[in-house]
Design a protein that fits this description.
Radius of gyration: 16 Å
Number of strands: 6
Number of domains: 1
CATH architecture: Alpha-Beta Complex
Strand content: 15-25%
Structural class: alpha+beta
Helix content: 25-40%
Largest sheet: 6 strands, antiparallel
Amino acid sequence: MQAPSKKPANTPDYLAALPTDQRKALDTLRKQILAAAPGAEEHFGYGLPAFKYNGHPMLYIGAAKNHCALYGSVPAGFKEKLKGFTVSKGAIQFTPEKPLPAALVKEIVKAKCAEIEVRWPIAAQKTGK
């Protein structure tokens, strides 16, 4: 009987535990998310690599046996653009062989950032006058 494997506690450990193709696909997706959302912070939540924008959860990435996924509510207006991918209310599934197009990732990230900015506006900084 095999001992249970230790659950990863951070993004590097999570990615290191994946098969090479999934690790490369998620690392590419990770870089695309960070490039599309300057100022986004990486964190690790719900056992998955994740991203916060303006201090609020934005997206999570992960892998399962037969797919990778981008987790978080799918912004409105992306149904047509996501044809060919398995989409639910909170996830977009893809494979390393058929990753999400970089331009589409950028659009999704920008839409998620806009949602956060509307829901949690940053208060104008007070001046010392």
